[in-house]
């Protein structure tokens, strides 16, 4: 999931580099929504170690 978020942020930077600001904004807000989802449901869950 983290790799996907980094890839989306890289795509946002690439789109901004090529002056595609509307597409970059869309990808950025999608990335922010996924980041909040990941933080809320995955990063805060308890770790379980099964031995």
TrEMBL record:
Stored Pfam families: DUF5993
Transmembrane annotation, as ranges: 24-41
This protein's UniProt keywords: Membrane, Transmembrane, Transmembrane helix
Transmembrane is among the record's keywords: yes
InterPro entries found in the cross-reference section: DUF5993 (IPR046035)
Protein name as it appears in the record: Uncharacterized protein
Organism: Ruegeria faecimaris
């Amino acid at each position: 999931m983290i790799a996907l978020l980094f890839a989306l942020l890289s795509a946002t930077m690439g789109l901004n580099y090529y002056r595609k600001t509307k597409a970059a904004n869309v990808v950025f807000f999608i990335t922010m929504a996924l980041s909040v989802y990941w933080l809320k449901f995955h990063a805060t869950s308890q770790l379980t170690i099964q031995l």
